[in-house]
Amino acid sequence: MRNRMHAVRWIALALAALPRIVDAAPSETVPSLAWMAGTWTGTSGGLEMEEHWTPPKGGSLLGLHRDVANGRMVSFEFFRIEESAAGTTYWASPRGAPPTPFRMVSRADRRVVFENPQHDFPTRILYWLTEDGALHAKIEGTRGGEPAAEEWTWRRAR
Fold first, then answer.
1. CA–CA distances in Å: residue 23 to residues 26, 56, 84, 108
2. Count of domains in the chain?
3. What's the domain range around 50?
């Protein structure tokens, strides 16, 4: 009996040392961004733009962007949006550079905003879906001390 009690105490101590599992519902943040999923295309001044987002799964969305001009790729970027203990983060990796984090600061129906005030440019990334079904993205910040922004508009590819 004494050996059993000793074993029970050791098991209790070992279990107490394990990381605590919080019994909470999974966050609804990433699943609520399902409106971004799909293949999106657009053109601007002869530049062919495409953006692809996977459906939300495993607490993340994965994306990529490609620009093509005169039949040649002129730019690309990889991204991911994922949930963690720190919150929902958009990770941008232009041209394969190490990813830069942008924390989600607001979310509404079919609109999300991410920010990283310490980044040079951009400091804000916005995505929204309009009633006509167009996906928009905008980056904002400052360049050379002046406000600057770039915006893209895509339609769902058929």
1. 9, 22, 16, 26
2. 1
3. 27-156
Rounded Cα–Cα distance for residues 4 and 17 (Å): 20
Q: Is the pTM of this model over 0.90?
A: no
Cβ atoms of 93 and 77 within 8 Å: the answer is yes
Q: Is residue 68 part of a domain?
A: yes
CATH code assigned at 118 = 2.40.128.20
Question: For 24-50, what is each residue's pLDDT tens digit?
Answer: 334 678 999 999 999 999 999 999 999
Q: Among candidates 46, 26, 56, 34, which has minimal Cα distance to 127? A: 34
SS3 category, 83: strand
Retrieve residue 23's tokens: 């019994």
Q: Could you give the CA distance from residue 139 to residue 79 in angstroms, rounded to a whole number? A: 14
In a domain, 20, yes or no: no
Does residue 104 lie in a domain region? yes
Inside any domain, residue 136: yes
* Residue in this structure with the two tokens 């949930």, named with its chain if needed: 83
pLDDT digits (tens, 9 = 90+) for 105-155: 999 999 999 999 999 999 999 999 999 999 999 999 999 999 999 999 999
